[in-house]
Structure formats: structure tokens, C-alpha cells
């Protein structure tokens, strides 16, 4: 099954009607990221710290092109209370990553799934505006994964998802002395949110002029 076909199958099997009923949560946190280097380093440390804090965590797997595997990750996102999106310079090189991001924003807008973006060695403004190499990689990924009118549709959907996420409170790694401190801050935030009685009642979007917290 080609990537475009797999993506279409996943999309058709996970319409908004899937989220009309009360979601059944199987995971506390889903971590979305792109790039093997960041996966081996920062994301692996974050994943380990969350598990040590007894947070049920599902981590995105890179390079999943088979429809069944992609569908599994989409279902995991729909059954998760909080998603952590780790943006890096290579993030838009992964179509799987971007498709997951679309699903995350759908869940955020439909039932209030909490989204926590992390900007890892990339400016939040580059994510918001898809500037420079980040934006070029986005276009290249769309052309590699789709053809014809599907390219523009994918770019439009991905651009909207990126811009929306960049406007949500998150963290910029440049504001921390080292990764360990950032991991500690994220885990603390997650465990605090999970202690809230009405987790999905309180939302905290912020303006694009201040998209990070320290």
C-alpha cells in the first residue's frame, strides 16, 4: 500500500464522528516527533522520565508506511489525554509526523485534548510561518507523498495544524540550561495536569507573541 493510500485509509477510518462520543482513554500521553537523532536523545529521555513518573505514555514510531501501523498510531492519539509535540528542524521531513499532527489538532478542537508543544532548537516563529528550511521541507514532503490536487490539500492541512500548534503554550529548549531541566519541567506539568479533576475543561491558548513558557 502506498503512503498516500495508507494516509487516505487512515483518514477515512477515523472521521470526526469517531470523536462525537466520550473518548475512551488508554494513554495519558502521546509523544509526536520527527527525526532519529532527537528520538535517540531528547525524546528517549523524556519518555523514560514520564514512565518513571508512572505516566502511561505512547511514543510515535518513525517511518511507519503501512496503513495498519499508521492507523494504530492514529487510534492511540484519539485515546490519549495529553499530546506532547516535539518540533525540530527535521520535523517536516516526515509525512507520518504531519499526519499525526493533523489528528492531534482534530482531537484538541473536538474534545479538548491538551497539547503541549516543545520547540527543540527551532524558533517557534519558523513553525508558525513555515519559514526557511522548515517550510521547504514541508513542501518537499507533500510532493513526495502525494500527487495532483492532493499535494495542495496536504499542504493546506499541515500548514493549518502547524500554525495552530505554534500558538499554544509550550517550551523553547533555548530557555533552559540543559535538556534535563526541560524534561523535569515537562514531566511536572504533565503530572499536574493529570491530577486535575476536570482535565479537559481548562484550556490555556496564548497569543502567538508568547508561545513558550519557562
Structure description:
The protein starts with a helix and ends in a 20-residue tail after the last helix. With 214 residues, the chain is α/β, with parallel strands linked by helices. Residues 9-20, 63-68 and 200-210 have low confidence and may be disordered. It has helices at residues 3-12, 36-52, 67-78, 95-111, 124-129, 132-145, 149-166, 179-194; strands spanning 27-33, 57-59, 80-87, 114-119, 171-172. Helix 2 packs across helix 8, helix 3 packs parallel to helix 4 (95-111) and helix 4 (95-111) crosses helix 7 (149-166). The protein has a single domain (3-12, 24-191), classed as 3-Layer(aba) Sandwich (Rossmann fold). It is globular, with a radius of gyration of 16 Å. Helices cover 51% and strands 12% of the residues.
In the CATH classification, which architecture applies? Answer: 3-Layer(aba) Sandwich
Strand content: 5-15%
- Secondary-structure-based class equals alpha/beta
**CATH class category:** Alpha Beta
Question: Radius of gyration in whole Å, from Cα?
Answer: 16 Å
The helicity comes to 40-55%
Cα-to-Cα separation, first versus last residue: 44 Å
**CATH level-four homologous superfamily name:** Toll/interleukin-1 receptor homology (TIR) domain
